[in-house]
Amino acid sequence: MQLPLDSICKANRPTIITIAGLCWSQIFMPMMAMGAQQAEIAATAAPPSINLQAQTAQFLKDTAFEYKNQPDDASFGRYWTFLKDQLLLGELANLDFSSMALTSNVPGLADLKVRIHDLGNHSRIFAFPHVKESHALIYQAPAGRSVILPLPQNVALIDARLVGGGGGAVHLPATTQKTSVKGKAQPSEAAVSAPAPKLLILIGNDRINQTVWLKAYKVNDGWLAEAPEAFASLPVYFSQNVSGRASMSGNDIILTIVSPQTPALQTVSGDTSTKPAIKAPASSGYKVVLKYANGKYFLSGKAPDDAPAAIAMSFVQAIAQGKPDLAKSWLQDPKLISIPKYLNLIGRSSPPMRLVPMTGFNVYRYRVITGNKNDLIIEVARIATAGRLKGQLAVRGLFVAPQDALAQKMTGTVILPNTPATSSQSENKVE
Predict the structure, then answer these.
(1) Which residues contact 60 (CB under 8 A, 6 or more apart)?
(2) Which of 145-159, 209-223, 243-257, 276-290 has the lowest mean pLDDT?
């Protein structure tokens, strides 16, 4: 006996619906649970919002407004003192607050152009580099380790970084210990090692004379202790009263040292019968790299290996070897060879010349320390005008300049006439 098709469907409809409902629940219920779990994780990871008490917010707003209208030590001091108390022990002591949230929600921070340096490991530094009345930094760290760090008069903080502490070891000099051999005391050498320190490096600039300020603190479980040994291996000149700029490159510090002489350069060309005009170099200074190793900074011993430096080196090498035709091949204008001729540098081997990298704007400059009363400045650039060197790097200009006391402090790369450039000595060594 056959039943009509509609009768079969009606008879089995509850079962079909039940199975379908079960399948849909197996698919969507885990997805809903996963979505709820992700929402819970996101809510946990999101930084807390900043809801200052009305009285706190109003006081910060009023004191910041007071300073903006009458900037002096007293008005900024009122804002600074209250802000410091809130960051160290008050409503803003929560290190989970993001720097962006603090700048956006705490009155006065954006107006006074605060800089918040996030150091990682739940620590950061608050600085006001654009406020001349600011003479201290706020170091915010967990578990009551927050402190106030003083700044010298007129110094503005430029950068703050944590360096070192990567789990390596600092190898200290061996110590002499006495051991007993058959009843007799015998000296023995024992190597001593200590964990590599983690340092907080502060870099600043004097607002008046643009001298560079460097400071180091040893960081131990969030606590800070001054670390003068970090810069003890540098010549005094490179750690005190250096005019210029400093910046961090990884753990290293790049110094751009500015020479006090800044008149414009004059290019000299033509035959040697005309005496060249002598001008001091118009450069923003000399580059010096302070390398970090085992908790201390040292002058870099790496010779220049970039293309412009190689061209300058090859040009000076040809001059020292007495090969003016070879030297001309590096010149955009071959007539410029008259300048090293005028300075009596062709084929000169004693005293050896030195090549020191300089800084410039959109060009590469190098000073040749000649040992005479005048030095040679080499300018390397990519040639844009028509000719055999178009589109290539070449020596675009040569300049005569009097001795520079700052450059004399740098050994640079020694030019040895019969030695390839790759065997040059250190770049930033100091005599």
Answers:
(1) 52, 79, 82, 83, 86, 106, 107, 108
(2) 276-290
Alpha-carbon distance of 430 to 171, in angstroms, equals 25
What are the b/e assignments for 144-173, b being 16+ CB within 10 Å?
A: ebbeebebeeebbbbbbbbbbbeeeeeeee
Distance CA(5)–CA(386), nearest Å, equals: 91
pLDDT of residue 66: 97
Polymer length in residues for the chain: 431
Report CA-CA distances (Å) from 186 to 159, 174, 304. 51, 16, 49
Number of H helices, E strands in the chain: 9, 19
pLDDT-wise least confident of 37-51, 175-189, 280-294: 175-189
- If 0-12 CB within 10 Å is exposed, 13-18 middle and 19+ buried, where does residue 238 land? buried
Query: Whose CA is closest to 162, among 199, 128, 217?
Result: 199
Name the one residue in this structure whose structure tokens are 């996101």. Answer: 42
What does the radius of gyration of the chain's CA atoms come to, in whole angstroms?
33
**Do 280 and 261 meet the contact criterion of CB atoms below 8 Å apart?**
yes
Cite the DSSP H helix spans in 295-342: 307-320, 324-328, 338-342
DSSP 3-state assignment of 360? coil
**Pairwise CA distance, residues 25 & 22, whole Å:** 5
* Sheet order of strands, 212-220 included: 155-164, 198-206, 212-220, 223-226
The first and second tokens of residue 170, run together, are 């600092």
Tell the residue number behind the tokens 């000299």, with chain if given. 268
